[in-house]
Amino acid sequence: MSSPVLNVHRLKTAFATDDGEVTVVNDIDFHVNAGEVLGIVGESGCGKSVTSLSVMGLLPANGKVHGDIVFKGENLARASDQKMRSIRGNEIAMIFQEPMTSLNPVFTIGSQLIEALKIHKKMSKKQAQQLAIAKLKEVGLPRAEELMKDFPHQLSGGMRQRVMIAMAMMCSPQLLIADEPTTALDVTIQAQILELMTKLNSETDTAIMMITHDLGVVAEMCQRVVVMYAGKIVEEADVVSLFKNPKHPYTVGLIRSVPDMRGKKERLYSIPGNVPKPGSIQTGCQFAPRCEHAMERCFQETPELTSLAEAQKVRCWLYVESKGEGAVDRTIS
Amino acid sequence: MIEPLVKVENLKKHFPIKGGVLGSTVGQVKAVDGVSFTIKKGETLGLVGESGCGKSTTGRMLLRLLEPSEGKVYFEGKDILSLSSSEMRKMRRDMQMVFQDPYASLNPRHTVEKILEEPLIVHGMRNRQERKKRVKELLEVVGLSSYHAGRYPHQFSGGQRQRIGIARALAVNPKLIIADEPVSALDVSIQSQVLNLLQDLQKEFDLTYLFIAHDLGVVRHISDRVGVMYLGNIVELSTSEELYDEPLHPYTQALLSAVPIPDVDVKRERIILKGDVPSPSNPPKGCAFHTRCPQAMERCGSERPAFQEMKDGHYVACHLYG
User: Fold this and answer.
1) Measured distance CA(A159)–CA(A165) in Å, rounded
2) B132 — alpha (psi -120 to 50), left (phi > 0) or beta?
3) Which of B157, B262, B272 sits opposite A243 (nearest CB)?
4) Domain membership flag for residue A236
5) What is the pLDDT of residues B232-281, one digit of tens each?
6) What pTM was computed for the model?
7) Nearest CA in chain B to A251
8) What number is the ipTM of this complex?
9) Do A122 and A189 reside in the same domain of the chain?
10) Residues A43 and A90 in one domain
């Protein structure tokens, strides 16, 4: 059993707005083991991106983090700015959805790549450049030497995302947070990038926290999965259990909503209603208004995340027998 | 044989590239470079392809939102490219469009009622009472309520906004709806609602769809026939079952194998294409795909393959089959 590199405990992230405080991430616990790929899935507004920004300490000024984010024994939620700077881009790196907006358009690829090395590893420019060229080759970019002098706009979307990955891998981080890394890319390019990330994950010791809304990407890449809905974790499972034996009605609905490429169904399953806006809190289970299994209790009390099997946890009253008897396993459709 | 609702012949769109001091044309972006297809009445034709393949441009040319550079478009046997702009405006009563981004395609300063009324006014429904009634009807048809009429677009969620976009297209009782990536901006759970709605409406109003999307799963689900586009050409066209189960063109095969499937049991042989899509301003000679094709032969670099029927209704443009 590998030990976790990241341990998040009771994380709560709220934003101060004109309409009062809005809680976007509401009391979540999860961990990322060394070398694994953890998927965080959910629809827009469920808090998955805010979770990653909280870990990185990149929240806007009105955002506030409560709880513990323990990375290698250090609580990032309480770390100083200086400490965070020495970790970011060095031990934890991040790649974003839109590579064009995350690269600086007025600097060459080369100068952006070696920036982290100069700061974190105190390398000379020459050494750094050599390493940068090596990394560019590692992520499968041709003519790496010339590319160092190119500007971001001269590259295609897929190449830019490869540059972003090279940049993130520059200091060989222990944890790579990838926030929808392939959402903006075409499928054939997405396949290239996913293959590259799988390769990097198996060759280096870097754990990946993969944030995505695409269940296909999850099935392909991840070993463990956390499903989020309205700021809470509703299910946590290893990837096989999640797809073969999903427990939470939301997970079940989500998997059934995806049109299958391999066969045609007359009608798609759909979850009624809308994705709730962040901060729209109601009592009881957040999913209850859209849930076809909802009982009276669901609207009154909030269920806890309960362990069902060794690696599967679910937040749903369906799996809780009356008081204090722990969880029961059952299959819903 | 029944006359198809839409017949497209050798349709092309070349955008000029202006350059130099005098702004002369120095090149051309061949966004769509000779596509031909038909859409039968009541069916859904899907067009898939990656960004820049010309699928949206093709959709826009059918409505003449973009003027084609070359080619013919027949709607119910009538050559619509010869129509004057006022005749074309009348024609658009029969052909409507649903756009990708429901945030950008609805006027934020108009109420839903005003948005839905506009096509009715344009197409000559004078009576205000009648229009109000029709707006209510439309809202209910797409699964919203009549009290939504007084609200503004920003008060709706993405899925609801797309429903308004669909209601607007339906307002004039069109025969053909061109849906350009109608569900790509939506969450999975909302996407399935909108897809189901589109299918229900098709049955109810006997609609014909041209469904443009990049998501192969979505396209298979909704389409009767599917065309695959690459660099301004349709490379393969067939019924959706046949295209997905027995793809012929190497590009279709690679495209299908690249889609991640939400099933942990599936272990597929994946064809990873090298490199990026070439620029449409300077497409490769011969078959446009030969630069990335794992099965390219010498002939592919010099000769453009013809788009021909291989099996009954299964068309492909590839030298492997000719």
Assistant:
1) 10
2) alpha
3) B262
4) no
5) 999 999 999 999 999 999 999 999 999 998 888 877 788 888 878 888 88
6) 0.89
7) B189
8) 0.85
9) yes
10) yes
Query: Which contacts of A301-305 are long-range, i.e. CB under 8 A and separated by 24 or more positions?
Result: A305/A29, A305/A233, A305/A236
Tens of pLDDT, residues B25-62: 888 899 999 999 999 999 999 999 988 899 999 999 99
Residues A141 and A173 in one domain: yes
| CA dist., res. A17 & res. A21, Å (int) | 6
Coil, strand or helix: which one is B167?
helix
A243 chain-B contacts, CB cut-off 8 A: 262-264
Spatial separation of the C-alpha atoms in residues B259 and B265, rounded to whole Å? 15
Alpha-helical runs (H) found in chain B: 55-62, 85-91, 112-122, 128-141, 158-170, 188-205, 216-222, 240-245, 250-258
Question: CB–CB of B254/B269 below 8 Å?
Answer: no
Q: State the amino acid at position A154 in one-letter form.
A: Q
Q: Is residue A97 domain-shared with residue A47, that is, in the same domain?
A: yes
Question: Which of B192, B193, B258 minimises the CB distance to A191?
Answer: B258
User: Does residue A289 sit in the same domain as residue A218?
Assistant: no
How far is it, in rounded angstroms, from Cα B217 to Cα B198? 16
User: Class of B6-94+174-321 per CATH?
Assistant: alpha beta
Angle between helices B158-170 and B112-122 (to 10 degrees): 20
> What phi and psi values does residue A216 have, to the nearest 5 degrees?
-65, -45
Domain of residue A279, residue span = 249-333
Asked whether residue A324 falls in the same domain as residue A219, the answer is no
Interface test with B, best of A220, A250, A265 (most B CBs within 10 A): A220
- The predicted-structure confidence for A98-126, as pLDDT tens digits, reads as follows 877 889 999 999 999 999 898 898 889 99
C-alpha–C-alpha distance, residues B287 and B96, integer Å: 33
CA B195 centroid distance within chain: 15
Structure tokens at B222: 């909704």
| Whether residue A77 is found in the same domain as residue A219 | yes
HSE, CB side, 13 Å, CA atoms: give it for residue A187.
23
Question: Distance, in angstroms, between A80 CA and closest chain B CA?
Answer: 37
| A213 lies in the same domain as A268 | no
CB nearest to A187's CB, from B50, B158, B276? B50
Kindly state whether A105 is in contact with chain B, defined as any CB-CB distance less than 8 angstroms: no
